[in-house]
Amino acid sequence: MKSNRTNFEIANSAMKYARSDHYNGVNAIYRLAASVPLSQKNCTDSGKNQVKWLVGKLSELKVKANRVNVLEETLEINFYPKGFQMVMTKGQYVGLLLEFAEFLDNSGILGIKIQEDCYNDAPDDSVKAVRNNQINFFPEFDSNCFGLNDHEKIRIRDCYLNLLSKEVA
To answer: 46-82 in b/e burial notation, b at 16+ Cβ within 10 A?
Structure first.
């Protein structure tokens, strides 16, 4: 990922780089993802503190992230859809990503960027087994369509620092 690009530029890059099955009106959206550089990747205590701070900050936002993956150099933040969220066109998909970009830019989390890797995710095809009235064809990036419910806690998946979820959440 080119760190000098803005979230709006990254969102717009979906016009060129997103898989067409993300916006073809056949598959549900699997996730929207962001990442934050891990500031002290060689210092476990500092890394734990950064994860604790990030989870605290994410818990205060209007749309709460579902999961934080602790990787070697980054903290990956996943926002999963509530129910079945589906877009019908490339323009609608980019519009959703622009809403996500604005949300991230207003989050108060320094260095947070849309993770372009999610443009290559295999889409959620479970929508093929549900009726149309169970599908939202006009998703917005808000707490009705994405993220945790109020009573749920952000899950931490540690792939690098060997943190225990109960230490951070």
So the answer is: ebbebbeebbeebeebebbbbbbbbbeebbbbbbbbb
Query: DSSP readout, 65-93?
Result: -SEEEE-SSEEEEEEPBSSEE---SHHHH
pLDDT in tens, 73-100: 899 999 999 999 999 999 999 999 999 9
Domain definitions of the chain by residue range: 7-149
Among 146, 126, 135, CA closest to 65: 146
Encoded tokens for 22: 């993300």
Residues 6+ apart with CB under 8 A from 137: 25, 86, 87, 88
Taking the whole predicted model, whether its pTM rises above 0.85 is answered as: yes
C-alpha pair distances (Å), 14 with each of 27, 77, 124, 128, 133: 16, 18, 18, 24, 28
For the segment 121-130, what is each residue's pLDDT rounded down to a tens digit? 888 777 878 8
Which uninterrupted H or E stretch holds 155?
A: strand 155-158
From first CA to last CA, the distance across the chain in angstroms is 28
Q: Cα–Cα distance between 100 and 123 in angstroms, integer?
A: 18
* Helix (H) or strand (E) segment spanning residue 136: strand 135-136
Report the DSSP beta bridge partners of residue 79: 32
